[in-house]
Amino acid sequence: xxxxxxxxxxxxxxxxxxxxxELELSRKDAGCQAGAGLATAVAAAQADAEKTLGAGYEDExxxxxxxxxxxxxxxxxx
Length: 78
Hints:
78 residues; mainly alpha; 0% strand; elongated
């Protein structure tokens, strides 16, 4: 993809075409991740990791959960 973007140079139509390919690849990637249950696996791994951390990290973990929730919401709107 870098090569296509380099070749597109300053041509707006060519840059737009490259962006379209990137967006389509991103959509397919998100679909594959959803189909494979990646979010569920990540959540389970996160829960396991949190169990091993012990006490004292509640604020940081809450902040990370909020960031994760916000990122997923943003990705779903994308």
